[in-house]
Amino acid sequence: MRRVTRNYILALIMLPAALFQAVSGFIIWRARHEGDGFRGGGIEELGEEATSLWEKHTLSDVHAWVAVALLVLLIIHIVLNWKWIVYTTKNYFIKR
Questions:
Q1: Is 71 helix (H, G, I), strand (E, B) or coil?
Q2: pLDDT score for 38
Q3: Are the CB atoms for 76 and 17 separated by under 8 Å?
Q4: Rounded to 5 degrees, what angle do the CA atoms 86, 84, 95 make?
Q5: Residue 33 in contact with residue 44, Cβ under 8 Å?
Q6: Model-level pTM?
Q7: What is the C-alpha separation between 32 and 51, in angstroms, rounded?
Q8: pLDDT in tens, 57-92
Q9: How far, in Å, CA of 22 to CA of 20, rounded?
Q10: Residue 43 CA to chain centroid, in angstroms?
Q11: Region 9-28: what's the mean pLDDT?
Q12: Contact yes or no for 73/17 (Cβ under 8 A)
């Protein structure tokens, strides 16, 4: 697999994970400051099955596991691009 294709696929996997982290982190933060914020905002109208997906502990658990997956992907990304990182850093400081 070409390096460009590999990096593109890795970025496509990391982007939705990072967006999920941002959105779920905001929801969790808002819920902590407003009490039981997961049940507010019309979610209860969807029924008991739908609200169980958005309970505090469920969303917090998913948020934590996506964070672990994102960290693993980030480490893979750094390892795969380590030569470029070193080369670019050296060139940046040598030219200055």
A1: helix
A2: 53
A3: no
A4: 60
A5: no
A6: 0.70
A7: 17
A8: 788 889 999 999 999 999 999 999 999 999 999 999
A9: 5
A10: 23
A11: 93
A12: yes
